[in-house]
Each structure stands twice: as structure tokens, then as C-alpha cells.
Sequence to fold (166 residues):
Amino acid sequence: MSNRLWYIICMNTCIYDSCDQIGQIKGMCRKHYNAEYFKQNRESILISHRKYYKENQEKMQKWRRDYHKKHPEVSRRNSLIRKNRENSKYKTYTDLEVLQLYGINCSICLEPIDLNAPRKTGRPGWQKGLHIDHLIPVSLGGLDNIQNVRPTHGLCNLHKSSLKVL
Fold:
């Protein structure tokens, strides 16, 4: 089989509806294949991970210490995110609750959000689809609760990036 023909055969997207990656292995992208493999082989994988950690404990601890020394900002950010999650006094929220509380207009441009448009970036029409935006980004100390989120268009949210919009 020629390389070109093989490439065309492999151009099918992943069998998962929410994924638009190329299906390489058994019709699945690498991420979904690995997830399925882990589900089916969970016990043996965890046993081998524990064995490896036990045999290489000092090496792995040294790597972790070196990484934290080299990248203190990453450690600080991850610690802050974890503490915010643990200390959050608020319950989780659903998209429907956010829309009921704040309406269906984009909180940035104030235009209506197309709730039928795809939410995944890159799909046709995603720009007007619903994104849930954090007013104060979690990475900057904001909490992941309904008081800190607003409905936005996908494009407005990505243009805003991690700026604070109040």
C-alpha cells in the first residue's frame, strides 16, 4: 500500500463525537486510546507504576525537587489553585445554572450567545458558541464558583485571555 493511500485511510476523525483529532489506533486518537487502554488494564498498570516508584524512589524525588527549584512559579501557581479548590465555600455549578443566573448574552460584548453553536474551538460557528469565563482567572487566585463565572462567546473569551473583566 502506498504512503499516500495509507494517509488517506488514516484521515478519519476519532470515534468519540466530542473529539476532532485524527483516529490513529482502532479509530481513536492517541488520548482516547490511552484512556481506554488504562480502563481495561488499570490494575496491572498501577502495579507496575508502584513497582517502578519503589525501585526508583530517590531518583523520582530528586527529579521533583529539581523541577520545583527550577520552576518555582509553576509550583506556586499549582499550590494556589489546589488551595483555592480545597477552600472554596461554594458548590459546583452547571452551565444551565450560569445561564439562568446571568442570562444568555455575552458578558463581554453583550450580544446573544448561540446555544446551538459548537463550543469546541475550531469547529464551524464556534466563535458565537457558549464559553464559561472566569472573571478573575483561577490561575490568578480566582475561585471556581458561580459568583466568579459569566457566559461569553468563545471568541470573546479567547480574545480576553486572562485579563480581569469586571
